[in-house]
Structures are given as structure tokens and as C-alpha cells.
Amino acid sequence: MKSESASLFNAIVEAPFGAVGIRTADDAVRELVYLPPGYDEQAATDPLADQAAQQVARYLREPDFRFSLPLAAAGTAFQRRVWQVISEIPPGSVLTYGQVAKLIRSAPRAVGQACGANWFPLIIPCHRVTASGGLGGFSNHDEETGFHLGVKRWLLAHEGVKAW
């Protein structure tokens, strides 16, 4: 549907919650974007986008799949520390913002902000970080019935997390 997506993304992969847009440049994945329903699948425009699209599709079929893609340098030193901890959370498991904060000697709110700044969702699985008393936010969104929290719920259920 959305014709402007062809110029925005190097590939779009359909997903149960909508789609995942993939941007590549300079032999690295630059960004993954959760897209709401209405975006048509788009064939890859380059070999790396094709590889990324195949890996996203495989994760959507197999929740234990581990990504292996070159990622562009992104984020502050603090954000990269948070993302490193998050990258080590196995599928089907969650940590709270507070638990991640304790591991890096920081504050839960700062961890949440770093999660929201993640350029590589799915690859750096911020959906595996929750609030101590509930789901928490996702991708800098916290509306209870909104698209992004719906994506987070789907991803956690896909990985076998039963709480949400």
C-alpha cells in the first residue's frame, strides 16, 4: 500500500503485527522499524537488505533464532552499554529496567530511554525489558492499547513469555 515506503526502506518484511522496515547503507544495517498494518512487503534492494529480511522472517517463524548482521555504529556509549546487556537476554526471558540498571550501575529511567533509542529492535531485543510491575513502554511509546505495546506483547508471546 504505502508507496512512499519504497524510498524509505531497502526491504519490508510482513509480520503478524504489521511489518518490519529495513534500512541499510555502507555494508551495515542502519535501522529496523516496526510498521503498522498497511505496508506491503518489499523485495530487498541490496544483498545486505536481503540477508536482513531473511533473518527477520526467520525470527518471525522461529523465536529462538539469533541474528548475525553487521550493524551501523549508533547510540551513545551509555546506550551501547544498555544494548549490550539487552542483547544477552535469551529469547523467552525478560529483565526489568531496574535489573538492567543494576547490572550497569545506572537508573531504570535511563535504561528505558536507551531502550527507546534502539535503532535495531529484534536484533537488540528491547522487548525483553519490562517494568517491575507490568509491561512498561516500548519504542518510546507507552499507550496501553497502542500499536507499539501490541508489538511488544506479540514478540513476548512469540518467545513464550506468558505474563502479557
From TrEMBL:
Keywords: DNA damage, Methyltransferase, Transferase. This is Methylated-DNA--protein-cysteine methyltransferase. One of its GO terms (molecular function) is methyltransferase activity. Residues 77-161 form the Methylated-DNA-[protein]-cysteine S-methyltransferase DNA binding domain. The keyword Signal does not apply. It comes from the Bacteria. The keyword DNA damage applies. One of its GO terms (biological process) is methylation. InterPro entries: MethylDNA_cys_MeTrfase_DNA-bd (IPR014048), MethylDNA_cys_MeTrfase_DNAb (IPR036217), MGMT_N_sf (IPR036631), WH-like_DNA-bd_sf (IPR036388).
